[in-house]
Amino acid sequence: MTVLAQPRTYEVRTFGCQMNVHDSERLSGSLEAAGYVRADGGVADVVVINTCAVRENADNKLYGTLGHLASTKREHEGMQIAVGGCLAQKDKSVILDKAPWVDVVFGTHNMGSLPSLLERARHNDEAQIEILESLEIFPSTLPTRRDSTHSGWVSISVGCNNTCTFCIVPSLRGKEKDRRPGDILSEIGMLVADGAIEVTLLGQNVNSYGVEFGDRLAFGKLLRAAGEIEGLERVRFTSPHPAAFTDDVIDAMAETSNVMPQLHMPLQSGSDRILKAMRRSYRSEKFLGILDRVRAKMPHAAISTDIIVGFPGETEEDFAETLRVVEQARFASAYTFQYSIRPGTPAATLPDQVPKEVVQERYERLIELQERISAEENQKLVGRTVEVLVATSEGRRDVERGRLSGRAEDNRLVHFEVPEGSQIPRPGDVVTVEVIRAAPHFLIAAPAGAELPVRRTRAGDAWDRAEAESCAVPATPVDAAGRVSLGLPTIGLPTIGLHSTAS
């Protein structure tokens, strides 16, 4: 009698942006299609690190993580470590020079190769590196292992045609490549059929979608088409570029009921002089004009942004312009970054690099200003009724205080308590609550009456199914004949018995 051994387990660790989070779902899906299973505690047989090259400490974070994994690998026979993503695309063989215990290095253009690279590394007993200079297949054609049953990411494009002097992304992800609208809408439809009621459209410059096939209005049309998908309740997108943000997109947002009143619009700097040095093809007046037009059509829209402090040559006058624009823009929140040199970018060699202590002091002033504005904007919502899409968990304090959390339609984080005797909502259900208190980063809400109004959704049903499946124990082991191939290589599962074979 032949008995199959346990399949190999995996863990994916994600550093970086939403694009990386979505890529990690694709990596997980490819591994599971090849026969791996997600590690449930303990040490995984395969650890995949999906890297970022944008943040200041990206290198330190990667090599620090790899240093910790080295000792784990020595104690766990057969363990493999794979490094992919933007930093892998940039550093290529440098990773193996610094961390020779890594088994696989792959780039942003060949995520689907991961299972075969891992198998090749095991079979040959040597590290494998494969970095393609152009996209192999569009990532969304790969299978997905989603982390959320109620929400999903959908890439509409990859790459970037801009030349911002601080950004290394174009050289790592290549020129923009757009998916066909039918393929995008088909994927959204499949997510909805699987229980999702919310999708976020992803692109490096999401609103320049259509440039590859010559349709400047393609993104607005895509938003309107998504509004026709039955069962899809919430549509979001990130991140648009101000230079390409047109009124037809604003109209599509305002006139499409399931497109949420939320916009993430990167400012980067409020100084026109610095924007020019960054090669950002807009100026502060145009940026503020976009916000005015958005709010004229959607008065309750929550607008967030990205800001870089201390770009080379930034003077105190330039920084004062950033503070002025932030005060006028009234952002709900802002992702603020201290400029750091990224080798390979034009800004890395610019003169007049701002001293670290100056950057830190300006950064702290910007944080203080935005915290005040966020608190004031959130305070305006006290007394308002909001619909909250319940999430699995948004932090430890929820557990400690016996409350649940989720996102309002404008994407603000809302914590709420469930009164005794009320129906307990599932992740993916929608509750109606009244905001009773505000803080800079979240809202506190409660039901208006004695019971919590809960709308049970298809997404909540999907969460129930996923929970049931995760607790189920298969009666017999699944072998290669019972798995769906999807055209991907499967890992070799060693057999135990009279006719055992080596993998």
From TrEMBL:
Organism of this sequence: Pseudolysinimonas yzui
Sequence similarity: Belongs to the methylthiotransferase family. MiaB subfamily.
Enzyme Commission code(s) on record: 2.8.4.3
Keywords: 4Fe-4S, Cytoplasm, Iron, Iron-sulfur, Metal-binding, S-adenosyl-L-methionine, Transferase, tRNA processing
InterPro entries in the cross-refs: Elp3/MiaA/NifB-like_rSAM, Methylthiotransferase, Methylthiotransferase_CS, Methylthiotransferase_N, Methylthiotransferase_N_sf, MiaB_methiolase, rSAM, rSAM_horseshoe
Free-text remark on how the cofactor is bound: Binds 2 [4Fe-4S] clusters. One cluster is coordinated with 3 cysteines and an exchangeable S-adenosyl-L-methionine.
Protein name: tRNA-2-methylthio-N(6)-dimethylallyladenosine synthase
Quaternary assembly: Monomer.
Cofactor dependence: [4Fe-4S] cluster
